[in-house]
Specification:
The protein is an all-alpha fold. The protein has one domain. The protein is 74% helix and 0% strand. It has 14 helices and no strands. Helix 1 runs antiparallel to helix 5 and helix 8 crosses helix 14. The protein is globular. The relative contact order is 0.12. About 3% of the residues have low confidence.
């Protein structure tokens, strides 16, 4: 396979996953903005949204305050935001068009239809109800695209590069959501484990479609250390960090077999995965979740760079 084709497949999947992640980030902020009035003014949910999306500095270059209207417009279709939902879908479609013969008709049609729908949408006129529907639509597009890829692509290196992009991006988003919730979102005056803290962790679990599965695993109320354990170390949870790295290792091993050699990306992915396997949830939360997540995000970025240098150039 040409490196350019692998690169397009890898980034096609990353941009679809990123669009879904931005929709989930905004959904968290929107849910927190509708908390009971007793909590009004105590939460900085819109500030946390741009922090999670890693575009805080860029946002404040053109905005004075992180309001709901400003943040939603910026993350959905901001003209100065190169990672807005609109731009992610457009870029994913452009990558898909460049590799039309490497993906299936179903995958192309989902992205092409999504781009045509988003082009016509007037984001400035979205009220809260319309915004919720739009965010649900973006998540649906990503789920449909992922399902189409899983059900219709041949299990060749085309498929494996597409999966690589998805799992690298998903691990990054889960880690950033957890880190912002733990380190940024809860005001200093609010107690850990208090009412606001409970609502915030619930909103995070809902945002990654994991609230029901959390209760199935733990069969008790929402505890911050259990949420961290669930989204970091539980391989049954498809958005956990360890699930992403279990699959990254499997895909990278398949690519190594395909091309006849191991490389830096295989060694780094195994190192990160082994580190996750050796972690304990209770210890992790007590000894520094923020520090752990910061290091994980840096390591995940290093893996993305290693994949690029090994396969995509």
């Amino acid at each position: 396979m040409l490196a350019r084709t692998a690169d397009n497949l890898y980034w096609l999947s990353r941009y679809v996953e990123r669009a879904e992640s931005l929709a989930r980030i905004l959904d968290v902020a929107l849910r927190l903005a509708t908390l009971p009035s007793a909590y009004a003014g105590t939460s900085n949910e819109w500030e946390s949204a741009i922090a999670t999306a890693t575009c805080r500095d860029l946002f404040y270059e053109t905005h004075a305050e992180a309001t709901q209207a400003a943040v939603t417009r910026f993350l959905i279709a901001g003209p100065t935001n190169p990672s807005s939902i609109r731009t992610c879908i457009e870029t994913a479609r452009n990558n898909a068009r460049a590799v039309r013969t490497a993906i299936t008709t179903e995958m192309w049609e989902i992205l092409n239809e999504a781009w045509n729908d988003i082009k016509r949408l007037k984001f400035e006129s979205l009220n809260s109800k319309d915004l919720a529907r739009f965010l649900a639509y973006v998540r649906e597009v990503s789920l449909r695209f992922d399902g189409a890829a899983y059900r219709t692509m041949l299990r060749t290196d085309h498929f494996w590069f597409q999966r690589l992009g998805m799992f690298v991006e998903r691990a990054d988003t889960t880690a950033r959501l957890l880190d912002v919730k733990y380190h940024v979102l809860l005001p200093e005056a609010e107690p850990v484990g208090g009412g606001l803290d409970y609502f915030q962790w619930s909103a995070l679990l809902r945002a990654v479609s994991a609230l029901n599965s959390y209760h199935l695993i733990y069969r008790q109320g929402i505890k911050p250390w259990l949420v961290a354990d669930f989204l970091i170390l539980k391989p049954e949870q498809p958005r956990s960090l360890i699930f992403s790295y279990e699959n990254l290792n499997r895909v990278l091993d398949l690519l190594a077999d395909r091309y006849g050699r191991q490389g830096p990306s295989q060694r780094l992915a195994w190192q990160i995965y082994a580190g996750l396997q050796n972690q304990d949830g209770d210890t992790l939360f007590q000894t520094g979740l923020h520090e752990f997540l910061g290091q994980f995000i840096a390591d995940n970025n290093r893996l993305g760079l290693a994949i690029s240098e090994q396969y995509l150039q």
